[in-house]
Amino acid sequence: MRATRLSLGLLAALVALLLPMLLDMLGQPAMLRLITRMLIYAIAVASLNFILGYGGLVSFGHAAFFGIGGYAVAILDLHHRSGPILGLIPGSDSFLIAVPAAMLLAGAAAAMVGALSLRTSGVQFIMITLAFAQMLFFLFVSLRSYGGEDGIIMRRPNALFGLNLRDRMVIYYVVLALTAGYFLFLWRLVNSSFGTILRGIRQNERRMTALGIPVYRYKLAAFTLAGMGAGLAGALMANFSRFVSPDMLHWTLSGDMIIMVVLGGVGTLAGPLLGAAAFLFLESQLAAWTEHWKLFMGLLLLAVVLWTRGGIMALPRFLWRWLRGGGSGDGSGAAAQDDPAGQGGRQ
């Protein structure tokens, strides 16, 4: 099994490296921009899945940290040309300065939001994260010096070792490298003692408290790390599209991220990547077909969730069991095998 997974991983890495050339051969070079967007959103969705799938924290304000990351890059770039922020903080158009700064700012915002919202749970936690996200959304709408509702247009991407980040192939490889690095970081984190404790908190918080585990600290640390991941994705999106707006912080984007998590598979490492890819691909195809594309997207989402009970990650096992059972399986077995700890059904 391990050898099979290793082989599939190496094959996926090879395809990812050769993808720009393959698309050129197929006469679909424009698809590379869509795939780059998929990778950027995969980082944001994976950071949300870290607290949702492994920590049981359903945050409806995760897009706020995504937007903060994007605005941090755009504002630093703006003040690089117009002068220091408040006459004190110099701007920067360096990728190696702006992106880490975006992650730190998003992480700081997540720590402040989490410090208050994590004192609640359940529906109260969802509503408080939503409220904070909307507060930040209206804050950026009111900042006329930074474009207000119109947002900020960046003249050029950040500078990185003399690379031309406007080139679709260059930005693809930069995003691919950071996506691979982030998923490797998540894999290590999930399989560490920190990840084990986080899963234990999701399963039974009272029991973990009784064992002497500082539950609040672990949840706050996880929430902060998730915010930093969303900030990284937002910073990459700002460099990719060269535009940021308050829409990046809106609650509807948080809802889309939750849909991507569920679509790909809650509590799985590869699920966010598959969910983001499937969502954005279906969005692009259905939107070109009909203006009522959200209706069909909803029906497809219901079909995947109800039939597989584990998202796209559970689909192969569901189909295998369905074929072996003559079409009588309901998908519950597949979900149980794919999610032995019950991560997908106790959100």
Write a structural description.
The protein has 347 residues and is mostly helical. It folds into two domains: 31-272, no CATH class; 290-347, no CATH class. The chain is built from 14 helices and two strands. It has a two-stranded antiparallel ribbon with strand order 1-2. Helix 2 (31-53) packs parallel to helix 6, helix 2 (31-53) packs across helix 10 and helix 3 crosses helix 9 (215-241). The longest helix has 27 residues, at 215-241. The protein is globular, with a radius of gyration of 20 Å.
Question: SSE layout and pairings?
Answer:
Elements: H1 2-26, H2 31-53, H3 63-82, H4 95-117, H5 122-142, E1 152-153, H6 168-190, H7 193-203, H8 205-210, H9 215-241, E2 243-244, H10 251-264, H11 271-289, H12 293-308, H13 315-324, H14 332-338
Antiparallel strand pairs: 1-2
Helix pairs in contact: 2-6, 2-9, 2-10, 2-11, 3-4, 3-9, 4-9, 7-9, 10-11, 11-12, 13-14
Q: Span from first to last CA?
A: 29 Å
Shape: globular
* Tally of alpha and pi helices: 14
The tally of structural domains comes to 2
Mind summarizing the main beta sheet? 2 strands, antiparallel
Low-confidence stretches: 328-347
What string gives the helices and strands in order? HHHHHEHHHHEHHHHH
